[in-house]
Description:
Two copies of one chain form a homodimer. The first copy, chain A, is of the alpha/beta class and 410 residues long. Chain A has helices spanning 13-16, 19-31, 36-43, 47-59, 121-136, 140-144, 177-185, 194-204, 265-268, 270-279, 287-295, 299-323, 340-352, 372-387, 405-409, and strands spanning 34-35, 63-69, 76-81, 87-92, 98-104, 109-115, 146-153, 156-157, 164-167, 172-175, 189-193, 214-219, 223-229, 232-234, 328-332, 363-367. The first copy, chain A, folds into three domains: 5-84 and 403-409, Winged helix-like DNA-binding domain superfamily/Winged helix DNA-binding domain (Arc Repressor Mutant, subunit A, Orthogonal Bundle), CATH 1.10.10.10; 86-200 and 372-384, ATPase, nucleotide binding domain (Nucleotidyltransferase, domain 5), CATH 3.30.420; 212-326 and 334-367, ATPase, nucleotide binding domain (Nucleotidyltransferase, domain 5, 2-Layer Sandwich). A five-stranded mixed beta sheet of chain A has the order 6-5-4-7-11. Chain A is globular. The N and C termini of chain A lie close together (7 Å). Chain B binds a DNA duplex (30 and 30 nucleotides) through helix 4.
Amino acid sequence: MSSHIHQQKTAALNALLTSSQRQLVRVISESGPLSRTEMANLLGLSKAAMSGIARDLIDLGVLHETETVYGQGRPSVRLDLHPECAFFVGISLLEDPAPMILCDLNGKIIARQSMPLSRDPQVIAEAITEGLPSLLEAHPEATEKLSGIGVALSGFVDETQSNCVQSTLLNWQDVPLAKIVRERSGVETFIENDAKAVAVSEKLFGSAREIQSFSVVSLGDGIGCAHFIDGKLYRGNHGGAGEIAHCTIEPGGSPCRCGKRGCLDTVSSMKAIKEMSRAEGLECVSLSDIENEASTGNAAAIRILHRAGSGLGLAIANLIQINDPGLILITHVEGSFDGLFGTVVNQAIETNVLPRYAGQTPIRIKRVDGDVWARGAASIAAHNFLIGPNTTEVSHAHRCRRHPYRMQHL
Amino acid sequence: MSSHIHQQKTAALNALLTSSQRQLVRVISESGPLSRTEMANLLGLSKAAMSGIARDLIDLGVLHETETVYGQGRPSVRLDLHPECAFFVGISLLEDPAPMILCDLNGKIIARQSMPLSRDPQVIAEAITEGLPSLLEAHPEATEKLSGIGVALSGFVDETQSNCVQSTLLNWQDVPLAKIVRERSGVETFIENDAKAVAVSEKLFGSAREIQSFSVVSLGDGIGCAHFIDGKLYRGNHGGAGEIAHCTIEPGGSPCRCGKRGCLDTVSSMKAIKEMSRAEGLECVSLSDIENEASTGNAAAIRILHRAGSGLGLAIANLIQINDPGLILITHVEGSFDGLFGTVVNQAIETNVLPRYAGQTPIRIKRVDGDVWARGAASIAAHNFLIGPNTTEVSHAHRCRRHPYRMQHL
DNA sequence: GACACTAAGTTCAGAAAATGAACAAATCAA
DNA sequence: TTGATTTGTTCATTTTCTGAACTTAGTGTC
């Protein structure tokens, strides 16, 4: 009973645990640290049953005790996932060279390197496999407990998080990347759309752990968005939930590369802002350049930032009206949100949201570094390790009902 | 084991069943009829366990066998909820007089009457209680198995489906209507926003039973909308999910009663269409009046329908982009969708959705009669009877863990 | 600081529920 | 008719959960 999970070949937690143990892992990963009593109530089990389940998971190295919460009576001890229970590799195919990171179950980055980007899935699989030894080199524990690889890319991914249905950037159509990488590297692999990966990492590793429903809007060259609803990533019926970049914001506006006109992407993405600046004869390498121009009173710069900010604000306001999320998390790589752009975005949200709700939906701005996508990718691997393949409700349980860990270990 | 549920005082199914039985009821109500083997896989149980659970639920009168599906091997028999397992009363507070219906678990309306509308919750509770005997009069079975009352209203309802947080129409603020009706009538009562109630009835009774993620847009005097996501009603963080009527569609447009400008409600609701018509000197009692004018070439009528249709189409397109639902169900009481208005709506959806997705999201139009709201209300009661109070995941289970039916009946 | 008080978490015998394996039943296909 | 195939049942055995009593670790009070 005290043997460690990773004494046997790496496999999803899923396959090693009993149904109750799995449920518990899911609840903790959705709700954050909980005391045994809270868990028992949440799962509808007796304290007695919970006691045993928690003990087994602690012995397995999956959970550990964290803070003690004092109240009336005996203090309760919160249990959380053990950060070093498993390690994951995440790769972002959004940049060249492609960042490749190693992190633990808390999302803490332990090692970092990069690999050349390619459009050939075989070459990618090769590069990942080649890169693994040096990434893992100084970390024997991580090597032993490596539990998955995640890949983030720009494009559509199917609900199994295995196949890229379509990617304009990579020029892909129905590429079973996860399978290819899995077979080449021998490590369980999952892929996901960039924005969705970021949302999962915010839920699993980040600042949204305790929030059940929220949306992440990620600003980069393009605009990505993804929703968590009732504790789960909502991918949409065709994996297209969150494609806010192609909401029509300026009906009849500029043509977009998607074939429509007036998409948010043509108005508020960094790419659009840079292009509009260039068209106005303004030097604009990053957002701060044009923010600076605007602050010195340049009318064109002000106009551009106003237009971009109102567009994004309107889109976010629509999102709030439609989904009433508990939080909007705006992540941005470039520049800052303290300037005109951020101000206009906030104003536009306020003026386009039902007055009753204005200010009711927290908007959190988060500046992120170049590791977001890779970390997001790793979080996809982590999620699959913890919860198992994306499923509706309980429907996955049958796949691995056999062999709860007791039978294998004792 | 063969005693019937309703031999004892009516209570949520919830409280009488074991955890597995409850899970099964939930899965069936979310996914429609299933064979025992399918259920076993879905719940992660053995066929052996499933066999017993199904037998018990059939004996209890909760499930019954429906079609037989022939394939290779022994045919499978689908089990579904027994329509006469329980009966519900639904009341719509959207019209005066307020419709009041009695229906079974299939949503079949068994009796129908109406009661005077009031803004005083006590008076409403009184009217409902007074109305019950005559509604139930000719239906002894329904009387015996009456399992809940549902009330639909225009406004915001909290997540317990008990309190009306705010209703402009009724001029309410924090009214615990469910409690008041429950105490007066002695019957378990739940309330819900009109659009959300319609969505639940479509999922439970209607054409969306097998669809896990969809949105309902209901066109009436106002415009309502509600989402089902992964098999569950998504109410939003403040119960405001689906408030599409106050999405800004025409930035800087006409002022809306909500305080903003250019809301969808000021452009595409029947109320707005009628007002715009009147402003143009057109007679417009119902949508067909102005559709007729348009078909004879009246420019003003065409302009109005175009504006209204584009607005609604754009809003729905935004909804599709943001949530990628598996179905958009548009319900309308008045007129038809075959005229100019419907055509423009469809066109606007097509032109504002990512071309990749155009035509991928089925749009279903459904003309509904005056019973929609009351039926929707009844479905809220039914849902609470089947699944128990609105909860996230498993978290409700602890409330009624004791006394599985075996102990009470044998 | 001794005392009750409270609530968290543990232990263990007994009860309930799920399993696996063998089997019965209902169809198709040849 | 026979075999293949898959659904659904039965039952002895195993696993899991429960209830009740108990231990533990604090708070608050005098």
